[in-house]
Amino acid sequence: MNKQEISRRREHVPSIDPMDRILNAADLNWAILKTPVVFSPGSAEAAHPTEVGERSVLYRSDNHQKLAIVPSSHQLWQPREVLDFYLSLSAFYGLAIESVGHVQGGRKLWGLLNTGYGAALSGTCRATMYLLLSTRCDSPLAAQASAVCLLDPGGFMVPAAPGKSMTARIARSFEFLTPSDLAEIGELMRECITFPSILEGLSGRVVSDNEIKRATAAAFGSRRGDPEVPGAKAFRAVVNVLNQQRCETTALDLLYALSSLSDARDRKRLPHDFRNAAWFGSGFKRKQLAVQALARMLGAGSN
């Protein structure tokens, strides 16, 4: 019987650029294109479409989704360039960039840099501190940065500041980071260092029914303008979450409950763009108000 020899050749598999791998995984493997804004009259006898002076439309190269209207002089910054800046920033500070992505269909790109700070809290609760970077396609900034805390279990993103949350505005600069940028990012890192101790304080602070009402009213709005009285629906939802536990309610439990309710509202209202609300929009603002209200119980917040 004849034997057929099968030659085994090791085919060359081209290596994939790490940058391309990240862009593909994050659905950022597209470009931002720019075209002049054009006015098209409705009448067939009217003049031909004309350009609207000094205004341009930004749109995605893959699905042609409109992103923004900008001055024609606006300098484009592609997703690859934004990611390169995030990677450079993480390398400069020795931080790990854990994830990147986009919201609003690509209008805003974001990146999470793990600072290495955090705390193991009561039970299975864990807090991890990040720098949250974001870049709008219609902005002249390289990025905005804020200090945030990821609470697990649940994956709730809350601001890592007991008072007004600070945002560093990092300009596109030949210096990479200006002295002002370095100072502002330094302040954010200090917030990441100190916020875990505030959470530990919340975990040991038992709250009363009236304090639950005040914190709920601060985050979700009060009834008839009375800051002591929350809306009935929001208060019932928070109490239902708190009643699932068997021990005394602490301020940290209340933060989890308020964050859970806030995220649930945003997920129901904006299922396709939940992260934009929960991390950058109205949901993040609600959680900021909750953190401020609870921090005041410890004397750590500022009005």
List the SSEs and their pairings.
Layout: H1 18-25, E1 32-39, E2 50-60, E3 66-71, H2 79-93, E4 96-103, E5 108-120, E6 126-136, E7 141-152, E8 156-159, E9 167-171, H3 179-203, H4 209-220, E10 222-223, E11 226-230, H5 232-242, H6 251-269, H7 274-280, H8 282-298
Antiparallel strand pairs: 1-2, 2-3, 4-5, 5-6, 6-7, 7-8, 7-9, 10-11
Helix pairs in contact: 4-8, 5-6, 6-7, 6-8, 7-8
3D architecture notes:
With 303 residues, this protein is of the alpha+beta class. It has 8 helices and 11 strands. The chain has helices at 18-25, 79-93, 179-203, 209-220, 232-242, 251-269, 274-280, 282-298, and strands at 32-39, 50-60, 66-71, 96-103, 108-120, 126-136, 141-152, 156-159, 167-171, 222-223, 226-230. Strands 4, 5, 6, 7, 8 and 9 form a 6-stranded antiparallel beta sheet that branches. Strands 1-2-3 form a 3-stranded antiparallel beta sheet, with no helix packed on it. The longest helix is centred in the middle third of the chain and has 25 residues, at 179-203. 34% of the residues are buried. The model is unreliable at 1-10 (pLDDT under 50).
Given helix and strand content, the structural type is alpha+beta
The major β-sheet equals:
6 strands, antiparallel
Provide the residue-averaged pLDDT: 89
> What's the β-strand tally?
11
- Measured on Cα atoms, how large is the radius of gyration? 24 Å
Q: Which percent band covers the strand fraction?
A: 25-35%
Distance N to C terminus: 91 Å
Q: How many H/I helical runs?
A: 8
Outline: globular
* Strand/helix succession: HEEEHEEEEEEHHEEHHHH
- Share of helix, binned: 25-40%
Unreliable residue stretches: 1-10
